[in-house]
Amino acid sequence: MTGGRADGLEVRTASVDETRALAAALSAIARPGDLVLLAGDLGAGKTAFVQGFGAGLGVEERITSPTFTLAQQYEGRLRVHHLDVYRLDQLSEVVELGLAELLDDGGVVLIEWGDAILPALPNDYLEVRLTFGEGDDDRSVALATVGPSWAARRRVLTEAVEPFTGARARGAGATAGPGAAAGEADHQGAGGC
Ligand code: ADP
Ligand code: MG
Questions:
Q1: Which of 12, 16, 113, 139 to mutate to test the pocket of ligand 1 (most atoms within 8 A of CB)?
Q2: Helix, strand or coil for residue 51?
Q3: For residue 127, what is the enclosing H or E element?
Q4: pLDDT 10s digit of each residue in the chain, 193 long?
Q5: Ligand nearest to the CA of 87
Q6: Residue 22 CB coordination number (10 Å)
Q7: pTM (global) more than 0.70
Q8: Domains and CATH numbers, the chain
Q9: In terms of C-beta density within 10 A (0-12 exposed, 13-18 middle, 19 or more buried), how is residue 42 classed?
């Protein structure tokens, strides 16, 4: 984690809706069999991300935290499998999730706390790491591609998040200071719901 992820993209969001819009933009490049691993502390926005991702795929049902079930399934343009392995006691329980079957189902699998079960996951996924920022509603969303299928999509991935990379809009190399987002946050392309 030192010095950031050289192979990754980092985006900041200033509201839950913006995180959802970012996720929806990413869902546009999703393919059957994709795995998205969500990392970040409690309340960082992992479930919010899945909500936006699902909305982007046309899921109409309300996506909530799979509290009692480890996995939930939603129908959209692609089927969405939403897993939360926070309560998983042992790695062996992952077997019961039937992950391979879920990935083979023609849908997309998103796993909250997926970094906790890395040894059980195929080495081909998009990692989305959410961290808290300065203000209550500020989040940093770090994206890292692992494995061939996501690596091949680096360019479209960069394009998908471009509307959310404020630094790019403000000038190359300029990292937004804490005050930059506090004023008139003009996030083009983040609209819609
Ligand atoms: P997690 O699944 O990581 O535990 P949730 O998505 O359930 O987190 O909750 C995130 C909480 O943080 C929600 O109450 C949401 O409204 C709030 N929030 C505030 N700002 C943001 C943001 N920029 N991105 C995501 N969530 C945010
Ligand atoms: Mg959650």
A1: 16
A2: helix
A3: strand 125-132
A4: 333 344 679 999 999 999 999 999 999 999 999 999 999 999 999 999 999 999 999 999 999 987 667 889 999 999 999 999 988 877 777 777 889 999 999 999 999 999 989 988 999 999 999 999 999 999 999 999 999 999 899 999 999 999 998 654 444 444 444 444 443 444 444 443 4
A5: 2
A6: 30
A7: yes
A8: 9-167 (3.40.50.300)
A9: exposed
Are 39 and 125 contacting, i.e. CB atoms less than 8 angstroms apart? no
Testing ligand 1's pocket by substitution, the residue of 83, 110, 137, 141 carrying the most ligand atoms inside 8 A of its CB is 137
Residue entry with tokens 């959310």: 164
Rg (Cα) of the chain, in Å, rounded? 16
* Tokens matching residue 78: 């692609």
Burial class (CB in 10 A: 0-12, 13-18, 19+), 96: exposed
Q: How many Cβ atoms are within 10 Å of 91's Cβ, its own excluded?
A: 13
Q: Hey, what are 181's tokens? A: 């987002």
Residue matched to tokens 């961290």 = 131
C-alpha 182 – ligand 2 centre gap (Å) = 26
- What does the alpha-carbon distance between residue 126 and residue 33 come to, in Å, rounded to a whole number? 12
